[in-house]
Amino acid sequence: MTAQKMEFKTEVKQLLDLMIHSLYSHKEVFLRELISNASDAIDKARYEALTSSDMLEGEKEWKIKITSDKDAGTLTISDNGIGMTRDEVVEALGTIAHSGTREFLRFLQEKNIKDNPELIGQFGVGFYASFMVADRIIVLTRKAGMVGSKGVKWESEVDGTFTVEEVDKAGKGTDVVLHLKDDDKMYLDEWEIKSVVKKYSDFIEHPVVMEVEKEQDSALEKGKKIKVREEEILNSCKALWLRDKAEITSDEYNEFYHHISHDFGEPLKVIHYRAEGTSEFVALLFIPSQAPFNILYQDYKIGPVLYVKRVQIMEHCENLIPPYLRFIKGVVDSSDLPLNVSREILQNNSQVEIIKKNVTKKVLDLLGEMKKNEYDGYVKFYKEFGRILKEGIHTDFSRRETISDLLLFPSTKTDADSYTTFEMYVMNMKEGQDDIYYISGVSREEVMKSPHLEAFRDKEYEVLFMLDEIDDLIFGGFEYKGKKLKSVLRGDIHLDKTSRDEEEKKFGKLVDFIKDHLKDDVKDVRLSGRLKDSACCLVSDEGDLDPKMEKFLKSMGQEVPAGKRILEINPDHSLFEAMNRLFEKEGGSALLGEYAGLLYDQALVMDGARPKDPVAFSRSMSKLMASALKD
Ligand code: ADP
Asked: Same structural domain for residues 36 and 59?
C-alpha cells in the first residue's frame, strides 16, 4: 500500500510554526518530551498487561532506547510500550487532542513566545517540540498485543503535511526517528545525550538505555583491550517519591515537577510524606507558583498521578483530591489498593477516601502554616489559587471553618494590595454591629465608588470586597463563627435602628407615586438606610441574585429569571425635599414622572448599566440643564 498524504489541522500548523521559528533557549527539552511519551506508553502497556498478558508479547523488560547514528544524522528514541494503531497515530500526531489548546495558542502568541520560551511544553506541545531540532521526523509504531499485524509509518517534513503507510514492524511499541537539523547535530553526541537525560529524565522509572562503546579485556589475548558496544542505563530509575526526603535536592524535585505538570516554573511548595497506619501510601505533591491558564475550564484534569506499588494506574486520579484543591499536582503511591483497580472501584473505595482525607488535611495544614509563618508567600499563592480554594466553602461542609480561615479579602479598611481575614474583621467589628458586610464587584476601584457603601463609611463599618464572580454564590447564607455574611447590595439595611416613621409619613405619597410610575421596571421603591450622599440606588431583594451573579450565570449558559430590583431613595437628599414640594403642589404631574424615570436611569448608570432608553435619558438631561441655566 502506498503512503497516504494528510494535512495537519490548522492549530497544529500554527503550533509547528511557533516551534520552528521561535528562538528557544532550551531546545534540548525535546528529548525529555519524547522520553516522557515513551515512559507513558510503557506505563500504559504495563497496566494493560495486568489483565491481559498478551500485551507483553513474551517480553520481560520494559525499556526506552536511544540510538544515535552520526552518519545518517538521526537520533532515534524507541520504546516497547503500548504503540499506536493507524487511526491513533493520525489522531495523536495530526491534531491537538486537548481542547483549550486554541486558547493556549492565542495565549502564546499574545505573550510573544520569544520572551517566554518556558511556555513551550505545556499542553500537548510535547511531541511537536521535536520540530525545534528536526526537519524530518519518522514514527514507526505497532500496537502491543497484535503480533503479526502490520505497523504504521508516520512521516513529516515540516511542510504542513504528513504521510502514513503500513509497514512491517516486528516488536511492539514506537520508534521516533529524528533527522536533526545541521545546527542541532550536537544531540548526536554521547556526552550531550547523557547529560540531557540525567538533567531532565533521571527519575523516569523505566531504564533509558543507549549503546556505548567500552573498552574491555580481551578474552583471547591477555593484556589486550578491545572495544565493545554495550547498553548502558543513563538514568537512576528510582521513583523519586520513594527516596529519602533528606537526600533529594530541590533541583530533583523541580525536574520531577516539570515532568508531571508540564509547567516549566518552579513549584511554590513541595509536600512529600509517607503515611502509615490505617493507610499506607507515599505522597509527593506540589503547589505550583502559577495557575495554569485552563484551571477554570471544564476539561481541566484534576488529581495526582496514582501509583499502586510503583505501577502507574492512572494519570489523573480525581478521587484523591477535592476539586477545590485541584491546583495540586503530584503523585500518590499506595500500598493498599489492588493493582487491577478500575475507575469504578476507585469511586467508592474506603482506602481512596482515607487517602483523600489525609491529603486534604495535609494541604490545608500547610496553607495554614504558610499564612501564619510565610505571609508573603501565602499572598502569592492566594492571588493565584484563592478563587479555587474558596469553592471549598460551598462544597466541603466539614472543613468550612478551616477554609474560611484561609481566605483573604481586600476591604474598605485595607490599602491597595493588602488584605484582611474573617478573624480580623470580627475582631474589629464596631459596637452594635451584628453582621459581616461585603460588597461584590469587579474591581477594588469600582466597588470603592459604590453609593451602597455610604452609610457603612459613615458608621465606620468595614465592608469586605468580594471580587470573584462566584463569591455571591459561595457566601450566600454563610456564617463565620455565628456571624452572618450580608451583601450591602441586597435587602433592607438599617444601621441606625431608629424609627423612620416620620420620614415614611412625609415622603409616603411621593414614594407611592414613583412606585406606580416605575411599576414595570422595579419591584419596589423605598426609603434607603444605606445612602448618605447619593440620591438613589438599586438593590436586590433579600434572597435574590445580585446582578453580577446573574450576569455570571447567564454567561455560563444558565437560565436566570430576569429579577426586578428595588429602587431606594435617600430621604436626606435635598432632591426629595424639592420633588416632594412639587408633588404637594401639583400632584403626580408629567414632569414629576419624567424625574422619576431619571432617578431610575441614574441608579442604573451608577450600577454600570445603560439607562433604559439612552436617547430619552439624554433628552431629559438636556432639558433639565437648559432649564437650570436659563437665567
Ligand atoms: P501528550 O503527551 O501531552 O498527550 P504529545 O503531543 O507529546 O502530547 O503526544 C500526543 C499523543 O501521542 C500522546 O497522548 C499519545 O497518545 C501519543 N504518543 C506519543 N508518543 C507516543 C509513544 N511513544 N507511544 C505511544 N503513543 C505515543
From this structure: yes
Nearest CA to ligand 1 atom 14: 92
- The predicted-structure confidence for 136-183, as pLDDT tens digits, reads as follows 999 999 999 887 889 999 999 988 899 999 999 989 999 999 999 999
Whether 94 is in the pocket of ligand 1, judged by its Cβ within 6 Å, is no
The residue whose CA is least distant from atom 19 of ligand 1 is: 37
What pLDDT does 104 receive?
A: 61
Q: Same domain for 221 and 124?
A: yes
Ligand 1 centroid from CA 523, angstroms: 58
Q: Which residue, judged by its Cα, is nearest atom 10 of ligand 1?
A: 92
State whether 614 and 540 are in the same domain.
yes
Q: Which tens digit of pLDDT belongs to each residue from 372-382?
A: 999 999 999 99
* Residue having the nearest C-alpha atom to atom 13 of ligand 1: 92
Pocket test for ligand 1, best of 37, 91, 105 (most atoms within 8 A of CB): 37
Three-state SS sequence of 29-94: HHHHHHHHHHHHHHHHHHHHHHHCHHHHCCCCCCCEEEEEECCCCEEEEEECCCCCCHHHHHHHHH
Q: How far apart are CA 156 and CA 154, in angstroms?
A: 7
Q: 585 and 606 share a domain?
A: yes
Nearest alpha-carbon partner for 267 in 245, 246, 236, 292: 292
Pair (25, 93) in one structural domain: yes
Task: Answer yes or no: is the C-beta of 80 below 6 A from any ligand 1 atom.
Answer: no
- CATH code, domain carrying 476: 3.40.50.11260
* CB of 174 sitting under 6 A from ligand 1: yes
Q: What is the pLDDT of residues 123-141, one digit of tens each?
A: 446 788 898 899 999 999 9
> What pLDDT is attached to residue 343?
76
Cβ of 29 below 6 Å from ligand 1: no
Instruction: Give the side-chain half-sphere CA count within 13 A for 476.
Output: 14
Distances (CA, A) of 577 to 268, 494, 503, 580: 60, 21, 11, 5
Is the pLDDT at 611 greater than 50? The verdict is yes
pLDDT on residue 114: 56
d(CA 569, CA 534): 9
Cα 42 to averaged position of ligand 1 atoms, centre (Å): 11
Q: What pLDDT digit, counting tens, does each position of 41-86 carry? A: 999 998 888 888 787 787 779 999 999 999 999 999 999 999 999 9
Question: How many domains, the chain?
Answer: 4
- Strand-strand pairing, 64-69 and 74-79: antiparallel
Asked whether residue 32 carries a pLDDT value surpassing 80, the answer given is yes
- Would you give the DSSP letter of residue 362? H
Residue nearest ligand 1's atom 8 by CA: 124
Ligand 1 binding pocket mutation candidate from 31, 33, 40, 169 (most atoms within 8 A of CB) = 40
CA–CA dist 372, 366 (Å, integer) = 10
User: Does 81 contact ligand 1 (Cβ within 6 A)?
Assistant: yes
DSSP 588: S
Residue nearest to atom 1 of ligand 1 (CA): 124
Q: Are residues 82 and 127 in the same domain?
A: yes
| Per-residue pLDDT band at 26 (split at 50, 70, 90) | confident
Give the range of the structural domain holding residue 619, as residue numbers without chain letter.
501-630
Query: Cα(428) to centroid of ligand 1, in Å?
Result: 56
Ligand 1 pocket residue status of 124, Cβ below 6 Å = yes
Decide if 335 is inside a domain.
yes
